[in-house]
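re: that chain from earlier
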Amino acid sequence: MPKRVEVFASRFENRSRRGLLFARHQQYTNRRAMRLRRAGMSGFPRPFDEEFLDRNLYSRPAILIDEILGIDAKAHEIVCRMQTDKPGIPLIEEQRDPFGTHPKHLNGGILVHLSGVMGIAHSWYVEGLRVADGWVGYGTTIHHLDFRGPIEIGPPMELMVRATRRRIRSKVRIVRYDLVYTQKDRVVYRGDQSAIWRKMPIVKQPGESE
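^ sequence. v structure.
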């Protein structure tokens, strides 16, 4: 076999193996989300705390998710629900369907933004990080992303995020997340993404001018 063909075959085999492992992990993560959601934990579902809505890194209109379905602190997981038919979701009204072939849906940009929102919810409810204490976070790497939409407008979407790796120091945390979104028990988004959280010095209080 020519050398180039061997290299191509090897790369294809490695990609196939990675794809198989990813699919198996996706099935596992989806089952975990279902179990967590259906566990009937006391106090769930529940709305987000007012403090969270008022003092996290985004204002209320940008949060988009509506309630918490479950929290498993030991597994570093949180599951939330988003109503997809509420008004004010960005870019939906701007979508066009002149020939009846492109129905309105949640687009990829919103889904990636939601991964950041879920990271914020995870940092607050699972990691215990507070913006008022100086903690801020930024996405760093999208290791793998799998869109399995389109995501319909109407049925609610359930979003799960789980920390798979955590490097913790006094003022820095690097976290790798596994994200799964489902709609009507079907996986519509899978993400393997990382973020860094830093504790910064407080330079002003809310309401103060720059």
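The chain has a mean pLDDT of 86.
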